[in-house]
Amino acid sequence: MRPEELYLTIINNLCDGVYLVNNERRITFWNKAAEEITGYAHEEIVGQNCQSNMLNHIDKDGRPLCLLECPLYATMFDGKQRKEEVFLRHKEGHRVPVLVNIFPILEEGGITGAIEIFTPNSPTVYDDDLIERLCDMAMNDQLTGLANRRKLESYLEYKFHEMKRFQNGFCLIFLDIDNFSAFNNTYGHEVGDMVLKSVTKSIKHSMRKSDMLGRWGGEEFVGVFDIRNDGEAIMLAEKIRMLVAGSHIPYEGEDLSVTVSLGVTLACDGDTLESIVNRADALMYESKQDGKNRVTTDIRVAEGHPVATGV
Q: How far apart are the first and last CA of the chain?
């Protein structure tokens, strides 16, 4: 076997995609791995100009490299080897992340083309910090740092399981910031974000490790609290109401403040995630209807009636 045939056999059996372009940027060689990675057969690609947008390489920011900042063209211009992380477009339309390694073809002292070797860039092993960051993004609200709705729902399912097995009681508090839309319209969303963070801090600093507070959506929050007796649930909700009402957000020489309306209920036998949340939400809505900055509960006290507290 001649050396050229041997080299061709080796290249065609590599796991990496390999293609060659001449000094006109026309593709002159396309190996079998390149076919598998991109979906394009040899006869569909060879002879095409690499600017034809069949592969349509983009970088991680979505910029089209074939037209603007082609690393292959840059290597043909200055003779420097380059390694880049890019995304090529598969024949079926989806994007494939690849690591490309480009180096010039030198003949008789001049650059006559370039070789690009590309490898699927789908890491299967991540460092612990990356896993932690991804989990944090998936389960926590990015603005407040609280649990997001998905995490709250998972925690509630756990609390129901714990209650069924160990008879551990807990309450759910649903709270909503009063007049938040009007506040946003008056002061802007940036100040609105400051309010959300302020409410979060006011409540979090008085919570136990076994409790969980999360952002249910928009200006709505849900708290899940372990309790020793029924009256403690009402006291917890009233404490949250007072903490928020007594907090201030400094803004352009003003001390801005907000209030919250709350609904609090106990977890009962036969409850589901949906039933307890809907019940607390309805109680919170009663607080809104009764003047806001209030706590409404269906927990029975000595008189045998639901309780509403607040101003």
A: 94
Residue type, 176: D
* Predicted confidence (pLDDT) per residue in 57-109, tens digit: 887 767 777 766 788 888 988 889 999 888 888 888 888 889 999 999 888 77
State both tokens at 249: 């957000």
Domains of the chain with bracketed CATH: 3-120 (3.30.450.20), 128-310 (3.30.70.270)
Calculated CA dihedral for residues 209, 210, 211, 215, nearest 10 degrees: 80
Which H helix or E strand runs over 5? helix 3-12
Adjacent-strand bridge partners of 213 = 223
Closest listed residue to residue 284, CA positions, set 300, 303, 260: 260
Catalytic residues: 219
Largest CA distance in the chain: 100
CA atoms of 150 and 159, how far apart (whole Å): 14
- 18-23: long-range contacts at Cβ-Cβ below 8 A with a sequence spacing of 24 or more? 18/115, 18/116, 18/117, 18/118, 19/45, 19/115, 19/116, 20/105, 20/113, 20/114, 20/115, 20/116, 21/50, 21/72, 21/76, 21/113, 21/114, 21/116, 22/112, 22/113, 23/76, 23/111, 23/112, 23/113
How confident is the model at residue 304, as a pLDDT?
A: 47
**Full DSSP string of 123-186:** -S---HHHHHHHHHHHHB-TTT-SB-HHHHHHHHHHHHHHHHHH---EEEEEEEETTHHHHHHH
Measure Cα distances from 110 to 50, 79, 107, 114, 170 in Å.
Answer: 21, 9, 5, 12, 77
